[in-house]
Amino acid sequence: MKDLMTTAQSSTAIRRCRPPGRVALAAVAVLTVLTASAEAAKQARQPAEAVAQRQAGEPIMAIVSIKSQQVTFYDADGWILRAPVSTGTTGRETPAGVFAIVEKDKDHRSTMYDDAWMPNMQRITWNGIALHGGPLPGYAASHGCVRMPFGFAEGLFDKTYIGMRVIISPHDTVPTEFSHPSLFVPKPEAIAAAPGRADKLSAEAEQATQAAAEAKKAAAAAAKEAASLPASLRKLEQQKARADAELAFTDKKIAAAKSDQARAQAEELKLKVATKAADAASALDAAKAAAQSKRDAVAATKDAAKAAAVLKTEAVKAATDAKLAGEPVSVYISRSTQKLYVRRNTHKPAPDGGGEVFDTSIEVPVTIRNPEQPLGTHIFTAMAKSDTGLRWSVVTIENGDEARNALDRITIPQDVWDRIGPTALPRSSIIISDEPLSAETNYRTEFVAVLSDQPQGGFITRKPTAPAMIASDDGWDNGGNGFGFFYQRDPYVQQANPRRQRGQYQYYQSTQPMQRSWW
């Protein structure tokens, strides 16, 4: 500072005795020195890349600090990688919240920013927020993505996986060791039995599916056979009606006969017509009896098909749960919707391209004590196995209630816990938040939840992901892997692309032209 002041004083002296041109050049020199000093100070504050001096395990989560412009990756024992980042600039801010990696692309090109190169891209929302390599000026400068150093992003790419947790925090935060009776306590015997149980239930589901298909086929055949009954009966009824009319006509002829010969001829005709009418009546009665038998068969095969379908549904549900028991489970509890949501990765490629399918079969109401009071946003993660079950950590990115108190206020349905808790594995998580799920949460994501009190410009400039309206498929009928995964979007999710206005978020699509740049 002393040097800068000396320079400034010298410049004043020069300004008194030198021509205006030289004075201007001196002023430019001063500004250059000041700018360079400010830039140097900014660069000095930029975090440095770092690697933990130990054997690193599989990464479990990444925490991006918007405040410090830094990302840190953690395994079961602590941080393993750290690097500076550049998040979204003013008006295009990276949304703070809870995410997971949903797609990876080694050599990604932007569809929004004139084919801009975004190497080692790891997407966390389908509307375009991602982690990727890019230039780092030392401050927030992206269009909403999280830029990482090129070499760091390249080295990281093969270490991460679809479904890995990504937490974007407005401030600095770290995982803290945590324990609570409401967290999953797996049962070793249940985990050991899970593979065999999955195989057994999958076989039963296959059998139930085959039986349901055969019952459906039998019902269809019976219905097809019975479809011709109305026409056949109508034809026999018409034949009987004609025979009855002819019989009535012969009675009139007998009554009108003028001679014995005419009467004898009429009576002979009546005998023939009476036989015909009797035959027609017998044929109609037999056909009606047969038709009723076929109708009963149709009803029976239809009921059998319904029963087989119910058994198939139950068998498929049990088999699906058994298969998913081998995957980490993620739970999201929203104070806004008073609901509990469960996600598990099926590792089945999404049918419409990009990413993998997440099972969404559990969504239930949850009871929250004092629901009018905030909970905050807390991410509880099973970091590793322990002698008592699982070793947990907590990351808080929004203060409402203290993490322990927040868990105490929630009553989770016991049947849900019994369904997913006994086989919970490391990397399982429970997220508690005041926020609803973002509309970016769908069958190709784990959870996407953004903090509504933080800037979300990075969402505003992106077109929302189209709603998922896909027919249900249990996976057994159509050669799948047995996971029931498609669903209609939850009507209580947080809408995408919020623009804050007078304390509330409104929604719009940006009309500004996209400049060629980095995300």
TrEMBL record:
Segments forming a coiled coil: 198-272
Segments forming domain L,D-TPase catalytic: 60-169
UniProt keyword annotation of Repressor present: no
Catalytic residues (UniProt): 132, 145
Pfam families: YkuD
Entries under CDD domains matching the protein: YkuD_like
Keywords in alphabetical order: Cell shape, Cell wall biogenesis/degradation, Coiled coil, Peptidoglycan synthesis, Transferase
Pathway assigned in UniProt: Cell wall biogenesis; peptidoglycan biosynthesis
Matches recorded under NCBIfam families: PRK06132.1-2, PRK12472.1
Family: Belongs to the YkuD family.
Protein name in UniProt: L,D-transpeptidase
Species of provenance: Bradyrhizobium symbiodeficiens
